[in-house]
Design brief:
By secondary structure, the protein is mainly alpha-helical. The chain is 53% helix and 0% strand.
Length: 87
């Protein structure tokens, strides 16, 4: 996925801007493949993985708090605004 995103640096830059506008620190952390973002990227839609706020990921105790869901929505709204402003 990184090799696809490296060809489209604005995708990650815009996502980073959306995080910053939401008051969150951006963490660029490599993960192994197998994500929806990875698959979409190799299908021609550069797509970094974005925070969802979930806890205990992929366990039988996985959960997400309402505040985290609200922050995820804020990031997505910011991301749409950033794309509109810069495109």
């Amino acid at each position: 996925m990184k090799e696809v995103l490296d060809k489209h640096p604005q995708v990650v830059a815009y996502a980073s801007e959306a995080y910053k506008r939401a008051g969150l620190h951006v963490v660029n952390e490599p993960i192994r493949g197998g994500t929806d973002g990875s698959r979409l990227s190799f299908m021609g839609l550069p797509c970094p993985n974005l925070f969802t706020g979930m806890q205990a990921i992929h366990s039988k105790h996985e959960w997400i708090g309402v505040k985290d869901m609200q922050k995820a929505v804020e990031i997505l709204v910011n991301l749409v605004q950033v794309w509109e402003e810069k495109s």
